[in-house]
Write a structure and sequence with these properties.
By secondary structure, the protein is of the alpha+beta class. The chain has 16 helices and 33 strands. Helices cover 21% and strands 28% of the residues. The strands form seven sheets. Strands 18, 19, 21, 22, 24, 28, 29 and 31 form an eight-stranded antiparallel β-sheet that branches. Strands 1, 2, 3, 4, 5, 6 and 7 form a seven-stranded mixed β-sheet that branches.
């Protein structure tokens, strides 16, 4: 998984070996507005836009913002492409939307551009994506596949500025419209229409009673991919897949074929690679995601000792933002397949709200505190906070999986007596459940539950790991060393076996049994298939998995 996060970093390494055209400047005496005014020969057009939309006052006040500032040439290009004579001809609402698309209410330096998608949405509500492009021997950072950063990391009093050579486009087309507008996706568009999914992909974003948006993610196949699979027309697809003769029937195999390529939620490549499996709109069916070096693979796995090759996600044609989701493309045809249980290493600190804090999430030495209601996938009793901490590099605590943990303040009877987590997607099957924690002699004992059912063993957050017993003997007693590092301050406790009857997200809960007053520090919850080795691989502070061979001392 770490490889995909390094894709963009690799581009930056190339960039660092070439002539550098970026100019970093620190000027805390002026804010964003002041910097643009001082350099009005480059930014007079965006200054007009800020004034017309009354954002000049806003962007000139105190705060912590990232502003992608288009040059005069970039604004002129935008006006020409859209048939406007001047910025005064553009509707104010459109200008205001453009300003909000170029503005993020956090400071995001280029060093945080590591996974293709900037982790924080713009003030318009859409995400920006980044990449790397070579221009005359120099690698430049691209934004939304159209703009290049001309000057990066300009520090000002209320944030940071990245100067771009194009106005960033607002994603106005729905997924259905994006697919229909691409001639290379014409056959995919036909089958989307024939199965009735086009209407679903054309709907604007709505929110349910829990404020969850209706974004969708589509993994499309182009005409060449269909041709290589011997599918050259809609009729070919119907003959191969439509067993009922009615593709609009949700139980028809052709309908399921399309539904299997539609995922609930907004999942850019950066989101796909964070989990080995993702639910699709085909009921209880998931796609698998693997990373090999710089390649993202869909549905590659070994079954009964035989490697079933996956299809490659085409990164150049993926991460295309729509008004109601995101569009990807793959280089091969793929089908619904039998899913075997897969291990899930649930880093409890990996939460959407924490991920959006680019300056905190997995940034060593930083932390953030949350109160009940702040985190959509964690709930807890009482009014005390939960704190996310990314540990200082080199410390013993930093040997935690991904180098972070959650602190549950006073998980005890009569106080914050319970906490529950929505797990990542778990494929149906039988699993052994482990919890890894940083020992605290002032913590308490808790009863774990899975989907409301008590597990067979409790967890005592006060227990230190036995460092003298052989690993397999320790495992037989319900404990293990789960991390790659050599620290003794972390312990891992076996909690019991669960039978996951349906593929999807589930609820893991801890209920306090004692009244101790200290915090509980939780690192990771593992769900390992019962027939899998429970000791290997181990989990690294950098997110990597390490094998027994990796930790063998080098031979002399």
């Amino acid at each position: 998984m770490k490889s995909i996060f390094m894709l963009f970093v690799a581009g930056l390494l190339i960039y660092s070996c070439t002539k550098q055209e970026y100019a970093e400047r620190t000027d805390t005496e002026v804010n964003i507005l002041g910097y643009l005014q001082e350099n009005s020969d480059q930014f007079s057009e965006i200054l007009k836009i800020l004034e017309l939309t009354d954002n000049d006052v806003f962007i000139g006040t105190y705060g912590t913002y990232t502003f992608f500032a288009p040059t005069n040439e970039a604004v002129d290009m935008y006006l020409s492409e859209n048939g406007y004579g001047s910025v005064e001809d553009v509707p104010v609402e459109e200008l205001n939307n453009l300003v909000r698309l170029h503005l993020i209410d956090q400071v995001i330096e280029t060093s945080a551009f590591t996974d293709g998608k900037i982790p924080v949405a713009t003030m318009y509500g859409q995400f920006l994506t980044t990449g790397a492009a070579n221009e005359n021997g120099t690698t430049k950072i691209t934004v939304n596949k159209v703009a290049k950063i001309q000057k990066a990391n300009v520090e000002v009093g209320n944030g940071i500025i990245h100067v771009v050579d194009h106005v960033l486009p607002i994603a106005k087309k729905t997924l259905a419209e994006l697919i229909a507008s691409n001639d290379n996706l014409s056959l995919f568009n036909e089958v989307v229409k024939a199965t009735g999914w086009q209407e679903r992909l054309d709907q604007p974003v709505t929110y349910d009673e829990d404020s969850i948006p209706s974004y969708l993610t589509v993994i499309a196949q182009n005409n060449e991919v269909f041709h290589d699979a011997g599918l050259n027309s809609l009729q070919d697809l119907k003959e191969k897949y439509s067993q009922t003769g009615d593709p609009t029937n949700p139980e028809d195999s052709l309908n399921l074929y399309v539904a299997y390529r539609i995922l609930p939620g907004l999942k850019y490549v950066a989101d796909l690679v964070t989990s080995p499996s993702h639910l699709t709109k085909a009921p209880l069916e998931v796609i698998g995601v693997k990373v090999k070096k710089d390649t993202v693979l869909i549905n590659e796995e070994t079954f009964n000792g035989v490697l079933e090759k996956g299809v490659v996600l085409d990164r150049d044609k993926s991460d295309i933002t729509a008004s109601n989701g995101v569009l990807h493309q793959v280089d091969g045809n793929f089908n619904i397949k039998l899913r075997l249980p897969q291990p899930v290493y649930f880093d409890v600190g990996d939460q959407p709200e924490i991920r959006q804090l680019a300056s905190v999430f997995r940034k060593p030495g930083n932390y953030q505190t949350y109160y009940p209601g702040d985190l959509q996938h964690i709930r807890w009793g009482g009014g005390l906070p939960i704190t996310y901490t990314a540990h200082t590099a080199g410390s013993r605590e930093a040997q935690a999986y991904w180098g972070d943990w959650l602190e549950i303040l006073r998980l005890r009877t009569g106080s914050s007596s319970w906490v529950e987590f929505d797990t990542p997607v778990i494929i149906k099957g039988q699993y052994k459940v482990w919890i890894t924690f940083r020992t605290n002699t002032r913590a308490s004992v808790a009863q774990p539950l899975f989907d409301g059912a008590k597990l067979s063993r409790t967890v005592d957050f006060r227990e230190y790991r036995n460092t003298e017993l052989p690993p397999r003997v320790l495992e037989s007693q319900g404990y293990k060393k789960s991390l790659c590092g050599d620290t003794w301050i972390y312990n891992s406790r076996f909690l019991g076996i669960v039978n996951v009857e349906t593929t999807g997200r589930h609820v893991f809960r801890l209920e306090a049994l004692t009244g101790a007053g200290g915090p509980s520090w939780i690192d990771v919850i593992e769900f390992r298939p019962v027939d899998m080795d429970q000791l290997w691989p181990k989990l690294g502070g950098d997110g990597q998995l390490c094998t027994e061979e990796d930790l063998q001392p080098a031979s002399e």
